[in-house]
Design goal:
The chain contains six helices and twelve strands. The chain is α/β, with parallel strands linked by helices. It has a single domain, classed as Vaccinia Virus protein VP39 (Rossmann fold). The protein has helices spanning 8-17, 51-59, 73-80, 92-101, 137-150, 208-217; strands spanning 24-29, 35-38, 64-67, 85-89, 105-108, 121-126, 151-162, 186-193, 196-197, 201-204, 220-227, 232-239. GO terms for molecular function: methyltransferase activity.
């Protein structure tokens, strides 16, 4: 299969799907060392998922829109449970993998390109630090407004995110931020695989308090459902409009 260039994530997922089980993406950011990301992680089964992801799947209801579907592990699990799920991703390779694996509704576009008239969703699902898809705090504000057009009355957003303030601790444990710079949770990433390097993209890690402020200002009820040892949390945002 050919995939439009560049799509390092998609190429890695396709290679893994076709039997190259050691396929590994290199992730670079402006806040941490390079890290390997095995493609296998996107193909994990229910019991290989972190507890917060399993809890999020339990909390899904109605028609689910899976944002940033990857290789479709969450959509496939929900389909097995009888849910109607649509999964979207900006990676052409990821979309092809999801289709090949049996995700019934798949689309190639970003989170701001979902057409509200396509149907009202009961759950918007954003896992694997999925809230990061909004990119920045400005993007978060934009997305929270946009999500209202996608949600059915009483619909919910289930998302995970993390507080990465620990990356800015000095030797004494005090936090050192550039108060004149961007919010510390706005991170720039690139992915590489083989000879391909993708475009720089922004990813948001929102601490719980700033997320609550933005969500309540946008008219959502906020409920934190869990937290793990890595300071990642699962949140439910409910819009009563």
């Amino acid at each position: 299969m050919s995939v439009s260039h560049p799509d390092p994530l998609g190429h890695a997922l396709l290679d893994y799907q076709q039997g190259r089980l050691d396929a590994t993406i290199t992730v670079s950011s402006n806040v941490a060392e390079e890290e390997p990301l095995p493609a296998s992680y996107f193909f994990r089964s229910l019991w290989e998922m972190p507890e917060l992801e399993r809890e999020a799947l339990e909390e899904c209801r109605g028609y689910v829109l899976d944002l940033g579907g990857g290789a479709g592990c969450h959509a496939l699990e929900l389909q097995q449970r009888g849910f109607q799920v649509k999964s979207i991703d900006v990676s052409e390779g990821a979309v092809r993998v999801m289709q090949a694996r049996g995700v019934r509704e798949v689309a190639l576009h970003n989170i701001f390109e979902v057409k509200p008239e396509a149907g009202k969703y009961d759950t918007l699902l954003m896992l694997m630090n999925g809230l990061g898809l909004v990119g920045t705090l400005e993007g978060l504000e934009k997305f929270l407004a946009y999500a209202k057009t996608l949600l059915a009355p009483g619909g919910q957003i289930l998302a995970t995110s993390s507080d990465i303030s620990y990356l800015y601790e000095d030797e004494d444990g005090a936090l050192v931020f550039d108060l004149n710079g961007p919010y510390y949770g706005e991170v720039e990433y690139t992915m590489s695989y083989g000879t391909q390097t993708g475009h720089v993209f922004h990813w948001l890690f929102a601490d719980a308090s700033i997320l609550q402020d933005y969500a309540e200002q946008a008219g959502y009820e906020v409920e934190f459902l869990g937290e793990d040892e890595q300071q990642q949390y699962l949140v439910r945002l409910t819009f009563k409009g």
